[in-house]
Amino acid sequence: MEAIEALFAQLSREPDLDAPELQAHDSADTLLLRTAAAELNELGDGELVVIGDRHGALTLGAASLFGVSGIRTHQDPLLGERALARNAEHLGLADSYTNHLLDERLLEGARVVLMQLPRGLDALDEIADAIARYAAPGVRVFAGGRVKHMTRAMNEVLGRSFTEVQAGLGWRKARVLTANGARALETAPFPRWASDPDLNFELAAFGATFGGPTLDHGSRLLLATLAKDRPQARRIVDLGCGNGVLAVATALANPGAEVMATDQSSAAVAATSLTATRAGVEDRIAVHRADGTEAIPDGWADLILLNPPFHSGSTVHTGVAHRLIRSCARALAPGGELRIVFNSSLGYRPLVERTIGPTQQLARDRTFTVLAAQQWE
């Protein structure tokens, strides 16, 4: 226990969002390592997979404290990968793991899977199915989380892919679910597709794609403002592209425009690529897995569309949106426009005006506000 805490004290969230109320680890990480200790001590090279390790606590704990080698990891957020890499370098464990997508290469031959439970049931469903489909037949899964974020539905979702799911005792407001008896479904549950009456194309989503294969209310309101007031833009960015709805809708509405879609989520990037391909605009949308606007050249964008997240992991936090808004100033061309939709209670307008320039409200309803801000010339 003391060794775990001493190791975790050395971990940083950087370059992910950092704040006094946010940590690079939590009690679920500690409980997972303690619960799986016997299995970790018996693993051979390449037999451990870690999924959803936010900043490296599970991966580096297994490598440092249990001597596990050849660990394979999957982290949907790019900043999680980068935080793990930074912490691994600091601890001299950079060679202890490799990064993978959520696929057969990640899970083939895995005897043990450690995972932080994702926020959404769809994400858990996809992960559980992938483990059952690709890991070793006798794989044991240890899935942990904070009790306040766990529901009985998680047991039911795991039960679709495993014959036995047991909940352990709570400890420091954390709990671990253990799953055995893998049974893969006949058909993989993802990607999923859906249509919407306000769209002339279908949307794709993977388990961790924010919002799933739907047109969320904020994006619907933003698109309505574009239908009434479409800026003259040759270069358009969908920042935080999710399932690709804004990128594809603007590509279809502006046949001569170049569109760039970026997101730090691997599930979002994959979904946007599929949505663009089915809509027939894949040749005009460049999709990047990137942090904020880092993939966009200075002053490239005539128009940036932004429907920012309002959470970091399971914590509601405006810092993510603030970071994205600030990054737009560098990427916008002089006179370019940021069009942003957000929950009205969050009050982003003062930041938008200070960071970008003159701002006007284009739409507002009971929940959301759409602003258009013009970059200072």
Automatic annotation (TrEMBL):
This is Methyltransferase. Gene3D superfamilies: Vaccinia Virus protein VP39. CDD domains: AdoMet_MTases (cd02440). Keywords: Cytoplasm, Methyltransferase, rRNA processing, Transferase. The keyword Secreted does not apply. Residues 208-371 form the Methyltransferase small domain. Residues 9-180 form the RlmG N-terminal domain. One of its GO terms (molecular function) is N-methyltransferase activity. InterPro entries: DNA_methylase_N6_adenine_CS, RlmG_N, RsmC/RlmG, SAM-dependent_MTases_sf, Small_mtfrase_dom. Pfam families: MTS (PF05175), RLMG_N (PF26049). Coiled coil: none annotated. GO terms for biological process: methylation; rRNA processing.
